[in-house]
Amino acid sequence: MSSAKKIGIIGLGSYLPKKILANCDLEKMVDTSDEWITTRTGIKQRRIASKDEATSDLAIKAARAALKDAGLTAKDLDLIIVATITPDMQFPATACLVQKNLGADKAICFDISAACSGFVYALVTAEQFIISGVCKNALIIGAEKLSSITDWTDRNTCVLFGDGAGACVLAKVNSGGIVSRYLGSDGMNSDLLLLPAGGSRMPASSETVKKHLHFIKMQGNELFKLAVRIMSKAAEVALSKIGLSCKDIDILIPHQANIRILLAVAKKMGLPEKKIYFNIEKYGNMSSAATVIALCEAVRSKRIKKGDIVVLDAFGAGLTWGAVVIKW
């Protein structure tokens, strides 16, 4: 690994809505059961934002926690990137709303839409801004209110998703930092996971609302097979760029989509379960927020220590995927 000064995470924060929707609650809403959900997904409960909480509200709370952890103020920020597929509105960018509420008046602001890979994409993007000298630091946020685009009458999808936000502050560090990254996309499989209506292809109408086309649609079986293969490869490629292998991983922080996917990825990579961080049981799939919230929790619980090789690994709609290797 190069001895040149790296870009690293200097602060972390997260926010989870208070409301808990447990599997027993879903049993009263759709034809499902706790046993069915748990065995197929590993999820026991998920957090649901209140009606008056938008994605930017979740993002702001996570951002403030990350800034406090980094010892910075909003006025210090040069860049804000929000990774989300549930923006407050089509425009302006949710990052601009976060900027307004934080008072980060000198920051460049924009959103990234890469679904469940969004935080990893935003992390790599922000790293380039700092490497190039355009910015000295960056606030990266993964935030989602997936409950707003979930069809609560569809037993196959409504059991999967939850709301939340996580954030980190990036800057140059004296030791450790991001040591490798790998991103990929495959638009040929864009139809496997999407929200059909509301854009220029299919503008909102009474018909699209009646047909439930403003909710998440997914082909789970196909995604499962692709996720296992692509997530394992992404981590391996990122590690190989710096002469490492899966054996060198101290902890893998994967996108929390489905426990069966995560266990299959671990098996394919030859990783023992003790080297993987899981929190899907508590929160479900929070899309772009999942990986960063898991990272926050792993740090807080002392699962990550100085010098560890940490791999963030995500896969999502697009299709998009990415892995980032960090020396903590």
From TrEMBL:
Domain of life assignment: Bacteria
Boundaries of every Beta-ketoacyl-[acyl-carrier-protein] synthase III N-terminal domain copy: 110-187
CDD domains for this protein: KAS_III
Transmembrane segments: none
Beta-ketoacyl-[acyl-carrier-protein] synthase III C-terminal domain boundaries: 239-328
EC number in record: 2.3.1.180
Annotated stretches, region: ACP-binding: 256-260
GO molecular function, one term: beta-ketoacyl-acyl-carrier-protein synthase III activity
Physiological role: Catalyzes the condensation reaction of fatty acid synthesis by the addition to an acyl acceptor of two carbons from malonyl-ACP. Catalyzes the first condensation reaction which initiates fatty acid synthesis and may therefore play a role in governing the total rate of fatty acid production. Possesses both acetoacetyl-ACP synthase and acetyl transacylase activities. Its substrate specificity determines the biosynthesis of branched-chain and/or straight-chain of fatty acids.
Quaternary assembly: Homodimer.
Family: Belongs to the thiolase-like superfamily. FabH family.
Domain notes per entry: The last Arg residue of the ACP-binding site is essential for the weak association between ACP/AcpP and FabH.
NCBIfam families: fabH, PRK09352.1
Protein name: Beta-ketoacyl-[acyl-carrier-protein] synthase III
Organism lineage string: Bacteria, Pseudomonadati, Candidatus Omnitrophota, Candidatus Ghiorseimicrobium
Gene that encodes the chain: fabH
